[in-house]
Amino acid sequence: GSNVLRMSSGIQIKTKSAAQKSKTCSPESQPKPSAKLNPKTIDPFRAYSQPPSAFAAAYARGGIPCRLVHGSVKHKLQWECPPETVPFDPLLLTLAEGLRETKHPYTFVSKEGFKELLLVEGAAEKAIPLLPRLVPVLKAALAHADDEVFGRGLDALVQLSAVVGPSLNDHLKLLLTNLLKRLMDKKYREEVTVALQKLEHCGGKVS
Question: Spans of biased composition, class Polar residues (predicted)?
Answer without folding.
Answer: 1-32
